[in-house]
Amino acid sequence: MPFLKRLKIDNNGYDKKVFPFNIPAIQDGVELEFTENVTFFVGENGSGKSTILEAIADICGFNLSGGSKNHNYEFYKTESNLSSAMKLSWYPSKVTQGFFMRAESFFNFATYVDKLIEDDARLAHAYGGKSLHKQSHGESFLSLFKNRFEKGIYILDEPEAALSPQRQLSFLLIIHELEKSGKAQFLIATHSPILLSYPNSTIFSLDDDHIKRIDYKETEHYKLTKQFLDSPERYYRNLFNNDG
């Protein structure tokens, strides 16, 4: 069963005209229950999914540029103050082991790891045996997942950004092996219909000015992808109908 059981955001006392409390899905408060070890957050850009994950990572004590509680480096601050209005309920106790990964700042994390390896070459084995910068983007992502993910809560913001469809399937296998052991919980913001297909997962959508639980085939990601693959020509006619 998941370590993190519930999430509540109480906006009382906060200005709902100011970010992040002006985000429609957050504006009226939030209450979520986590019943599975794998939970996805979906929604258009700006819907608040990344902001919510960042606030959870903040409460866990993870580096908000990417990393665990033990990764001490700083880059441009992006975090909001949403964590001050958020309450998390854990069982049996709060988990501080794990990792926060945001695809947009992975380069900074890889640079930080290189500096650690320069000081102690023995640390390289924890990241696939060589510099993350000397691997392809997709290889470096999977090296991190395979070698650093073991026990804890893993908060991932668009991990598919560097992964081909085949590597996304490899990532699903990593998730499966970890979560079936009962030692790992995943909270993932994604646009990938491949990742969203993970069996027995929970999907929360932030698209309708509130957060609701939906089934995989109800997601826009599934419906649009399927419709496009079934008939791309129909989409091209609509997209390009103004061409002279």
Largest sheet: 6 strands, mixed
End-to-end distance: 58 Å
Secondary structure: number of strands: 9
Q: How much helicity do the residues have? A: 25-40%
H and E order: EHEEHEEHHEHEHEEHH
Low confidence ranges = none
CATH topology of one domain: Rossmann fold
The CATH architecture of one domain is 3-Layer(aba) Sandwich
Number of helices: 8
Q: Could you explain how this protein is built, in words?
A:
The chain has 244 residues and is α/β, with parallel strands linked by helices. The protein has a domain of 163 residues: 3-Layer(aba) Sandwich (Rossmann fold), CATH 3.40.50. It contains eight helices and nine strands. The strands form two sheets. Strands 5-6-7-3-8-9 form a six-stranded mixed sheet, with helices on both faces. Strand 6, helix 5 and strand 7 form a beta-alpha-beta unit. The protein is globular and about 55 Å long. The termini are far apart.
Which labels suit this protein?
single chain, 244 residues, alpha/beta, Rossmann fold, six-stranded mixed beta sheet, three-stranded antiparallel beta sheet, 8 helices, 9 strands, globular
Secondary structure topology:
Elements: E1 4-9, H1 24-27, E2 30-33, E3 38-42, H2 49-60, E4 86-90, E5 98-102, H3 106-119, H4 137-148, E6 152-157, H5 165-179, E7 184-189, H6 193-196, E8 202-205, E9 212-214, H7 220-230, H8 232-239
Parallel strand pairs: 3-7, 3-8, 5-6, 6-7
Antiparallel strand pairs: 1-2, 1-4, 8-9
Q: Could you write a compact summary of the structure shown?
A:
The chain has 244 residues and is α/β, with parallel strands linked by helices. 33% of the residues lie in helices and 18% in strands.
